[in-house]
């Protein structure tokens, strides 16, 4: 079967729904409701704990697809407290238990590889040094960083990477991808979105470099593409996914032409796929159509029409599986899949508060409301694994309708 071919249409008109199966390269997904990557700050001191196994298995379904929270590629990558890493043996060992638990429930799970770049603070850096970036411009005071004690701080001035240092960071992604496969993950997603390190190279509102990694679109895409190539050659392109958010200005990540930037990345991904004779697992694009993201308000948003146009163009141009994210509810997700605007839809906040979101969307059940103040707290249960399942509220009759 061809990559991306729809396996079976679920409704009587032959239109795919969120609950139609989907063949994502080598992975057979039983539905299109994906757990979006979400930082939850429960991996005390960077080590994934048993609480994470509980959290991810609660959200696993047979043939369902999950993406982990952003997981650090190196000890300079953190910008939140208690974020898990995948750069040392203790972390790799700890992840195994979580991945095994998800697999035991039939889930398919990718690890999101993350480096925050300048979205960090000296308190998170080994030796208390300045965080690295493409630039020496700090994130503006419009944004605040969550500090280890729960207070909010000002982002410090970063240190721009020397040209000669960039290859070492690429190598960290490469090693982290190999580690993820050793831990049993089905693949990895490269976090190229939301104003973090890779986005700090992609966007011309941040990247002010005068070397081969700055200036033209080709130069700004270079860091991402070197990472994609390194990782694809290590674990196989069909286990690699990319996340980007050309139109999101989170952490001052603005670009003068988001559509052109998105298309430039896609052109390179399409070309690489042709060269390697195989496709990436998927391309994941976040839309700015959501408010009060994280602890701050995202600033300007394009209007709905502009956003819809951008997304449709990116989807139309990318030759592979396309996942969208950002402000999707049941109706919008159904619409995106039915109209061919996305193959898969990832859900973030609604999945935080509804461990059985797949079931709830399927039977159109009411949803639990999420509690924002426990998004980034550290209790292994409260606000993490204690959101109720439908069968806890209503008895077993709804579950049996599946
Ligand atoms: C608490 C929280 C943590 C998040 N952490 C990450 C992350 O680690 N990596 C990432 O790519 N996106 C992250 N996101 C963004 C989500 O993946 C998602 O794109 C966003 O919440 C929009 O989807 P939604 O409207 O369904 O929540 C986070 C969002 C939330 C609410």
Automatic annotation (TrEMBL):
Q: Name one GO molecular function term.
A: FMN binding
All copies of domain NADH:flavin oxidoreductase/NADH oxidase N-terminal, residue ranges? 18-367
Q: Write the record's keywords in alphabetical order, separated by commas.
A: Flavoprotein, FMN, NADP, Oxidoreductase
Which cofactor does this sequence's record say it needs? FMN
Which Pfam family, just one, is annotated for this protein? Oxidored_FMN
One cellular component GO annotation, for this chain's record? peroxisome
The record's comment on protein family reads: Belongs to the NADH:flavin oxidoreductase/NADH oxidase family.
The name this protein carries in UniProt is NADH:flavin oxidoreductase/NADH oxidase N-terminal domain-containing protein
């Amino acid at each position: 079967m061809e990559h991306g071919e729809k396996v079976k249409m679920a409704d009587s008109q032959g239109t795919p729904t969120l609950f139609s199966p989907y063949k994502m390269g080598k992975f057979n997904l039983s539905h299109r409701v994906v757990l979006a990557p979400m930082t939850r700050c429960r991996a005390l001191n960077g080590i994934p704990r048993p609480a994470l196994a509980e959290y991810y298995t609660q959200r696993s379904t047979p043939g369902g697809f999950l993406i982990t929270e952003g997981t650090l590629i190196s000890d300079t990558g953190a910008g939140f407290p208690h974020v898990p890493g995948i750069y040392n043996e203790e972390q790799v060992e700890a992840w195994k238990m979580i991945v095994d638990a998800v697999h035991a429930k039939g889930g398919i799970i990718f690890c999101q590889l993350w480096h925050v770049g300048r979205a960090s603070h000296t308190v998170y850096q080994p030796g208390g040094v300045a965080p690295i970036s493409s630039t020496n411009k700090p994130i503006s005071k419009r944004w605040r960083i969550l500090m280890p004690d729960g207070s909010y701080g000002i982002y410090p001035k970063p240190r721009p990477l020397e040209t000669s240092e960039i290859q070492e960071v690429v190598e960290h992604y490469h090693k982290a991808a190999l580690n993820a496969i050793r831990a049993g993950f089905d693949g990895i997603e490269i976090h190229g979105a939301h104003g973090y390190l890779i986005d700090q190279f992609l966007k011309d509102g941040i990247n002010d470099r005068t070397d081969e990694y700055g200036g033209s679109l080709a130069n700004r895409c270079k860091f991402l593409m070197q990472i994609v190539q390194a990782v694809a050659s290590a674990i196989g392109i069909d286990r690699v996914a990319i996340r980007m958010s050309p139109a999101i200005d989170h952490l001052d990540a603005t670009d003068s032409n988001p559509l052109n930037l998105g298309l430039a990345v896609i052109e390179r991904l399409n070309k690489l796929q042709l060269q390697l004779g195989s496709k990436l697992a998927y391309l994941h694009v976040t839309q700015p159509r959501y408010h009060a993201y994280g602890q701050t308000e995202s600033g300007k948003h394009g209007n709905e029409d502009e956003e819809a146009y951008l997304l449709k163009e990116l989807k139309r141009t990318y030759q592979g599986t396309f996942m969208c994210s950002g402000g999707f509810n049941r109706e919008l997700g159904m619409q995106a899949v039915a109209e061919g605007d996305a193959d898969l839809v990832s859900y973030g906040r609604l999945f935080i508060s509804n461990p059985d979101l797949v079931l709830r969307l399927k039977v159109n059940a009411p949803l639990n409301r999420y509690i924002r103040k426990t998004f980034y707290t550290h209790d292994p249960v409260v606000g993490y694994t204690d959101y109720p399942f439908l069968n806890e509220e209503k008895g077993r009759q709804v579950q049996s309708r599946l």
